[in-house]
């Protein structure tokens, strides 16, 4: 029985509609530059510039009073938020793996006591800067570093970079249709090359969109699928 590529793609999109909507609000952070083994990637991928460059930082305070430590850290965050509103593209986020805008009233935004050092509290947040196709990653990185260098720290609060600058992408599932379209075009090319007696079968199209970092400011998006060629 000959496989209808359009029906296959349409069924995959329909079966994933609920999963995709669940990721509509997600911003994924990608840390570290990965040396991809391209033999492990599927034949079809979709390259895209990241939405943000991200520097994860830790705010540390060793004032004697726990209340004072918390107050000084919170005021530092407020100063960072205020400063970010004066610079296009700078935003503050919170979370590991999945980023959310900082909300000082959110209970998940917790200032923790350091178990290794008494009279010390800390919190990890992310400072990010938007980047577009036409903008230089190097220039944006320098802009981000300048923002951190000029941070208005309160009291005994210190700021430390937590790792290298990473990337983030907003709602990666929104690129599913582009990836599926590229796969469908590849199936058509294969069929044309192999002749009318052959067709393709794909497995794995119901999987989630995955990603790898391939450059300072670029990601490759893909679905882990496989293709089987069947000839009469």
Write a compact overview of the structure shown.
The protein is an alpha+beta fold.
Mean pLDDT: 85
Question: Unreliable segments (pLDDT under 50, ≥5 consecutive)?
Answer: 1-24
What does the radius of gyration come to?
A: 23 Å
Q: Tell me the strand percentage band.
A: 25-35%
Widest sheet, order of strands: 1-5-4-7-3-9
CATH H-level homologous superfamily name of the largest domain: Multidrug efflux transporter AcrB pore domain
What is the helical fraction, as a range of percent?
A: 25-40%
Tally of domains: 2
CATH topology of the largest domain: Alpha-Beta Plaits
Number of strands: 13
Number of helices: 5
**Second-tier CATH architecture of the largest domain:** 2-Layer Sandwich
Question: Which sequence of SSEs, written as H and E, runs from N to C?
Answer: HHEEEHEEEEHEEHEEEE
The span between the termini is 10 Å
Q: How would a crystallographer describe the biggest sheet?
A: 6 strands, antiparallel, barrel
Indicate the structural class. Answer: alpha+beta
What's the CATH first level of the largest domain?
Answer: Alpha Beta
Question: What does the overall shape look like?
Answer: elongated
Signal peptide: 1-22
Protein name: SIMPL domain-containing protein
Keywords: Signal
Organism: Cellvibrio zantedeschiae
What does this structure look like?
The longest helix is centred in the N-terminal third of the chain and has 19 residues. This protein has 232 residues and is of the alpha+beta class. Helix 1 runs antiparallel to helix 5. It is elongated, with a radius of gyration of 23 Å. Helix content is 29%, strand content 31%. It has 2 domains: 91 residues, no CATH class; 119 residues, Alpha-Beta Plaits. Keywords: Signal. This is SIMPL domain-containing protein.
């Amino acid at each position: 029985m000959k496989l209808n590529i359009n029906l296959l793609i349409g069924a995959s999109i329909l079966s994933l509609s609920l999963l995709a909507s669940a990721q509509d609000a997600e911003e994924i952070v990608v840390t570290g530059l990965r040396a991809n083994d391209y033999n492990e990637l599927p034949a079809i991928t979709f390259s895209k510039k990241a939405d943000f460059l991200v520097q994860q930082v830790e705010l540390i305070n060793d004032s004697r009073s726990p209340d004072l430590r918390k107050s000084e850290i919170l005021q530092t965050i407020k100063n960072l938020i205020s400063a970010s509103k004066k610079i296009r593209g700078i935003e503050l986020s919170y979370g590991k793996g999945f980023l959310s805008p900082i909300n000082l009233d959110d209970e998940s935004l917790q200032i923790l006591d350091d178990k290794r050092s008494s009279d010390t509290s800390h919190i990890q947040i992310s400072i990010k800067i938007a980047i577009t196709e036409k903008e230089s990653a190097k220039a944006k990185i320098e802009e981000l570093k300048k923002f951190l260098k000029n941070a208005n720290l309160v009291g005994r609060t210190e700021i430390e970079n937590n790792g290298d600058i990473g990337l983030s992408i907003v709602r990666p599932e929104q690129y599913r249709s582009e990836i599926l379209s590229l796969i469908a075009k590849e199936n058509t090319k294969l069929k044309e090359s192999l002749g009318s007696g052959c067709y393709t079968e794909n497995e794995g199209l119901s999987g989630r969109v995955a990603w790898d970092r391939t450059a300072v400011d670029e990601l490759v998006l893909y679905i882990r699928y496989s293709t089987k060629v069947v000839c009469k």
